[in-house]
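Q: I have 595 residues here and want to know how they pack in 3D. Can you give me a structure?
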Amino acid sequence: MTRPTLSRRLGLHRGSDVNSLAPDERDPLQARIGEAKDEILAGRPLEAVRRLRALIDAPTYEPTLHYWLAAALGAAGDWAGHRAALRDAQAFHALLYISKAGGDLQRLTSDVAYAEDIARRLYGAKLMGPASSAFARAVAGGPTTAESLVCWGLSLQHQGRIEEAIEVFTAAARAFPGSDVHKFLLYACFFSPGGVKRHAEEVRRWAALYAPPHDPGKRFANPPQAGRRLRIGYVAPGFLNLQLKQFIEPVLDNHTSDVEVFLYAEDEAGLADARADATRVIGRMEDARAAAAIAADRIDVLVDLWGHASRGRLGVFALKPAPVQAAWINYVQSTGLSAVDYVIHADGLDGPEDEALFVERIWRAGPIIAPFRPGRRAAPTPTPALRKGHVTFGSFNHPAKLSDATVDAWARILEGRPGARLMLKYGLFVDPVLQAATRARFAARRVDPERIDFFGHTTGDEYLAAFGEMDLALDPSPCTGGTTSSDAVSQGVPLVTLRGPDFYSRLGVLRLEPLGLADLIAESWDDYVEKALAVTADLAALDALRQSMRDRFDRSILRDETGFTRRIETAFRQMYEAYEKRAFAQAETPADAAA
């Protein structure tokens, strides 16, 4: 009988895989692991380390054993050892998964094309742990491509293995110089310690390498603003078919007749149903051709909504096709381009050292960066702890945002609320390697890993119903939730966030201050833990807060679409007026000045 291919068998063996760290007491090895688990949770990690090392010296490649060694080392304060053991566990687990899914491990290490094929199938199935292992073997096997290196880096980044991802992206940028490869390194910086400063340095390097020299005295054919409609151009891969929708649609729907709106997208699908005076498809155009098309439209203020994320068009902005250029919504970090004049922030968002992180000027647009239009909402529900008998904390964020500091705080919250559970929901959590590694990180902080529940991607009613299973949403830091946190509060779920030291770690504040919930904004990690425990201590009070959330949200400035759009139009006019003053001053001759 012919053995089924990996594509047919992929994912069929998750039940027999390591998708839990709960030891099976019927197995002698697992029974010994269970004893080590008890020692870790009882505060005796050194005994657990000795027990587990003795078992490993056998030797054995059982992934669960290495996950628990990682937990024991972390609990003992050996974090370097913890990380090394965790990588071993992930490597053994990934290979076990590939083997159980029908992969040929011997061929995986000797046949580059086979390894790449396996890696891409795993990546497409969102199995990032096994995918990263297969990509590593493909790259090690011989000459590689930029695409393989980038996919390898992404498969690591999607697991939260940020420093490893940065190493791969750095190698890719050196081996395949080019702006499109280098920008993956820029995005990864956000998730690393000191991420905004690291990004600021790297984005300047990117601009020095790939951005054409910017002529600050460049002349434009745009007529004076007085007596005419201001022309605003927005650039993104798409508008109502991406996560931009709930932020940009309220603005597009409420622009006044005082402005002309032009949308520039990757393809027709990205423009579907979006309100504008004119739309243009620029996805197949080279940067110079796209810039020429924008210049021909005589755009006054050109706004990038996507940044250095994949499919962004900042190369067009580097050519300065419009007299005023700004970055907004999806990328509120520095673009690194002197050709971009402004980055749009909210009042009070910036930290004391943030100005130095930007090549551009920060333009403060009021109390929020953008409005948020909630999608369909489920019927309000009581806080679920009233029926479950225990509190459920939750996060619907990308795994890369689960920094060590975030896991530390969430573990302290679970320790302080016995019986509570943590609900982690994101499409990538279908990966058993990612699940086990995440559980081991919590076990290293003396939290029983079986208290962590994982859920994958859902849509429609199933997605909405998930909010009814969570009592309190926990914002990660320094990379806070975006759409996920906005969805939570708009669906009636209270949120705790941390006011970090810089603009990027303060975005969660913009979800709560407009709702009058400053008491859920923590000023330190200790304060964060205290607030999460305090708000879940009284279930009746928690339920009352939950019942008030939607009304708070609907009455807040986040829902004032008309008011915000008037403010942003005013901001665009003021930006253009400042340009006109500069242009007039440059055009004025000494004779004119004397007259």
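Q: Anything worth noting?
A: Residues 1-16 have pLDDT under 50 and may be disordered. The chain is about 50% helix and 10% strand.
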